[in-house]
Q: What sequence folds into this?
């Protein structure tokens, strides 16, 4: 079951904040987040392994609500370099393969 | 070299051709994956190899044939493809069984079937 990402696209001005959500209909073991720039490979940002876990990566952080089977990616004080497509990947409880969401396109303008 | 390397970067082939995509990882990972990325579609899992054994074949047509001769190399053999198979093919690797690590992706092979 593919996780659902929202929003599909977002446009920000430099310095603004954004939240990207990822939700699943199945119980999750972990959630991965990736960023892919045009013409490049997806780059791993972070993985969250248990409910309530939060992680940070520069000004990008994420949380994982195990009960709601949701994860959110927080981008604060966005920079031009944050532009790209953000994918969440989910691993179900008892599973091993990662299923990716459709992606959220983020465009940061000066 | 470090990371995950894919060759070729671009490939144009006719529907009657046979070609192979190559992936090599220098990370010591024990699992490798093939994903297909089409325009406006999510990443689609094709094959998973864990410890050199195929553990997943995600209903992929037989015109795609994977091969994993060792833990560092992964191939995708292509024959009699269709135009709808045109896409970006991404290889990834990870270390499974250690509590969760992300995937490292290669730069992909942009395949065009004519």
A:
């Amino acid at each position: 079951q593919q996780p659902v990402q929202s929003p599909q696209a977002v446009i920000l001005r430099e310095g603004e904040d954004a939240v990207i959500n990822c939700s699943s209909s199945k119980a999750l073991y972990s959630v991965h987040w990736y960023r892919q720039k045009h013409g490049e490979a997806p780059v791993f940002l972070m993985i969250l392994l248990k409910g309530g876990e939060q992680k940070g990566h520069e000004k990008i952080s994420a949380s994982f609500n195990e009960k709601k089977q949701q994860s959110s990616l927080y981008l604060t004080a966005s920079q031009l370099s944050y532009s790209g497509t953000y994918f969440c990947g989910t691993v179900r409880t008892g599973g091993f393969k990662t299923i990716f969401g459709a992606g959220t396109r983020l465009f940061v303008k000066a | 070299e470090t990371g995950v390397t894919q060759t070729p970067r671009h490939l144009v082939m006719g529907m009657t051709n046979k070609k192979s995509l190559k992936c090599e990882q220098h990370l010591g990972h024990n699992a490798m994956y093939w994903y297909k990325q089409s325009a406006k579609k999510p990443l689609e899992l094709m094959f998973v190899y864990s410890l050199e054994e195929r553990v997943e074949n995600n209903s992929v047509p037989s015109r795609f044939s994977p091969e994993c001769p060792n833990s560092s190399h992964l191939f995708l053999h292509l024959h009699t493809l269709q135009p709808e198979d045109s896409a970006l093919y991404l290889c990834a690797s990870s270390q499974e069984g250690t509590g969760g690590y992300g995937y490292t992706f290669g730069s992909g092979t942009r395949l065009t079937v004519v």
